[in-house]
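Exercise 3.2. Students should predict the tertiary structure of the chain below and write it as structure tokens, then compare their answer with the key that follows.

Predict this chain's 3D structure.
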Amino acid sequence: MQRRDPLGRSGVTPLRTQQDPDGRAPAKAPTGPAPSPSAAARRVAATGAVPRPAPGLRGSLGVLKVRDFKFLLIGNAMTFAGFQVRQMAQAWLVLEQTDSSLKVGIVNAMPGIAIICLSVFAGAVADRSERRAIIVWSRFGITALLFVSAALVATGLIEWWHLIPIGLGVGIMFAFHNPASQSYAMDIVGRERLISAASINTAISNVASVAGPAAGGYLLALGMEWAFWLLVVLYGTAYLAILPIRQKTVQARPARSIGADIKAGLKYVNATPAMKWLLVLSAGSIFNGIFLAMMPVFARSVFEVGEVGYGTMLTVQGAGSLAGSVALTMAGEVRRKGVLILVTMIVSAAALAMFAVSPWFGLSLGALFVTGVAQGVTWITVPTVIQTNSAPEMRGRVMGIFFMVVLIFQLGWIAGGALDGAIGPRETTLVAASGLLGLT
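Answer key:
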């Protein structure tokens, strides 16, 4: 099968066959007349093996015929909404208790620190293990930890520093969840459908990211505990959604140690110029983290719009991401993905600069929408290109390295908090915009 890397070169990528849910070897390609549509549909539903998609929107939506992918969509949407609400609720709680944007940054950076430390190891585990099992247990662990935090808030015992160990625990779970979940999508839908699956997944997740912060803002206004109980519901639903999925990932267990696997993954990435280029661009996420750290400060101190206004800001940015992912889905296959990534990063930087200098809340919401559109397209395209250009046996490790790099955006929360104390929120946001533009 022909593929193209981000720089336009073509090559051949082998596909790995998988067993069906009952453990039988997959059927050989038919040599006689083509099966009827109903038989093809049954084969798609049973194994996730889908033909090369037709161009355009109709071809992109064909991936929804895969039964297991629909359950994966539900779980991913709830996980993404939970991520947005968790950062929002934690930021507001810490800001209310301490009036310190630096402490807000420290708390929200904790999951990222754990993920950065463990992602390469977790990616190697994803290449050696059954990915569905990793996703099941990591989502269960996240739900349990967030139940603890909700109970502490509801009983009035919560202190801001309690969120540090809880955040580290959530980060450990996500360190294993992320590479397994990203790689599992290709296991279910196949390489040819991955960009369609990624676009639809992001669109559905962004619907949740629009509704989640909107609901979270109103719940914070009603009482802090309501937002934290919403987190338990969202992550609990994500856990339940993975249970009906039948697709198994058959992994060959290598004789070499996991340390050797990690070394091989790092060597593979270092020897692939296009992969290194994409990872360097992904490191620009730290500037997005700096900006995210400023959003509760803008809501509370600059525009003085409170919890509901903060939720509105996140909702508008999520709506922009939704619009970007829908546009990419309708466009179908984009050939010059490298150019698309660079253009969207430049647009994102310009919109951040507009937000930084805007004197009006309405204009700032417009800038947030544009930022969301650009970032929605960027963060569909980058991991999709990385996955489709990775050797199948390296995919988990490559995605682990990707998450190690991209999750430094959560360290941006600390940098943003420190810069805010030194130079102020508007100037800090301009630093983030300049850094993003300079990276491109």
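Discussion points: The two ends are 32 Å apart (CA to CA). The chain has a mean pLDDT of 79.
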